[in-house]
């Protein structure tokens, strides 16, 4: 039986990035291959006709490119950390129906996929946890989820399209708590500036029922984050569409212009925060 997705539901928001990855696999096979996205879409009782109509437009297709490239970028960050810490925990914050762990699994690491209970319920049906992987229902703002992460071998946290829905104060508290709890870990996520957040109000945030974006997280300069916690060892950033793999010459003129717009005016980036290693006071 196919898994039913109600229109205008929270679970419907899971379909957008998933379908975006499928469309990119179809339209840009030289850049993206995601058979899992196709499998999951085929397992859904959902009419994709309207979504396809919107996503096949030039602007819609760029949105799909963003989604697929974002997963690629964050996957690069996870794989880089696992090369140095092969037994680490790879923790997907606000996972939705993202399958990054299956793409980075080295046979030694463990994976944790965190999201709200209704999302995890859908995930358990469509993407059941594999060996060394757990789907955990939680609220990221309730820090008790940290107790469930086995990070003795290190931890790399990543979040795709998640923190735009958080108030800035809550993001700050979360990042500081993670840095205290997981020394030596890395956190990677996507961000944009306030202009980008305002544009999102007309699309993603509107669908989520959020109307006032002034208090919600955006980032003008990644160096702002250095003042958030003395447990941050470093903060760095790369271009969303060009920093990990430059696809500029692989797309048409319209999408090249959109890439330049996102880099220069919306400041779309992948941010990487490295947490300080634990320090011990010398005994005298």
Descriptors:
284 residues, alpha/beta, Rossmann fold, seven-stranded mixed sheet, two-stranded parallel ribbon, 9 strands, 39% helix, globular, disordered C terminus
Which helices and strands, and how do they pair?
Blueprint: E1 3-4, H1 15-27, H2 35-42, E2 44-45, H3 49-55, H4 58-84, E3 89-93, H5 100-104, E4 110-115, H6 117-126, E5 133-137, E6 155-159, H7 168-181, E7 186-191, H8 194-201, H9 204-207, E8 232-239, H10 253-266, E9 269-275
Parallel strand pairs: 1-2, 3-4, 3-6, 4-5, 6-7
Antiparallel strand pairs: 7-9, 8-9
Helix pairs in contact: 1-2, 1-4
What do these coordinates show?
This protein is of the alpha/beta class and 284 residues long. It has a domain at 84-275: Rossmann fold, CATH 3.40.50. It is 39% helix and 16% strand. It has helices at residues 15-27, 35-42, 49-55, 58-84, 100-104, 117-126, 168-181, 194-201, 204-207, 253-266; strands at 3-4, 44-45, 89-93, 110-115, 133-137, 155-159, 186-191, 232-239, 269-275. A seven-stranded mixed beta sheet has the order 5-4-3-6-7-9-8, sandwiched between helices. A two-stranded parallel sheet has the order 1-2. The N and C termini lie far apart (67 Å).
End-to-end Cα distance, whole Å, is 67 Å
Rg (CA only): 19 Å
User: Could you report the average pLDDT, rounded to the nearest whole number?
Assistant: 90
Uncertain spans: 280-284
Strand order of the largest sheet: 5-4-3-6-7-9-8
What's the CATH architecture of the domain at 84-275? 3-Layer(aba) Sandwich
The fraction of residues assigned to DSSP E strands is: 15-25%
**Topology, number of strands:** 9
CA-based shape: globular
Number of helices: 10
Assign the structural class, choosing from mainly alpha, mainly beta, alpha/beta, alpha+beta, or little secondary structure.
Answer: alpha/beta
CATH superfamily caption of the domain at 84-275: Vaccinia Virus protein VP39
Most strands sheet: 7 strands, mixed
Order of helices and strands: EHHEHHEHEHEEHEHHEHE
Write the CATH fold name of the domain at 84-275.
Rossmann fold
- The CATH top-level class label of the domain at 84-275: Alpha Beta
Percent of residues in helices: 25-40%
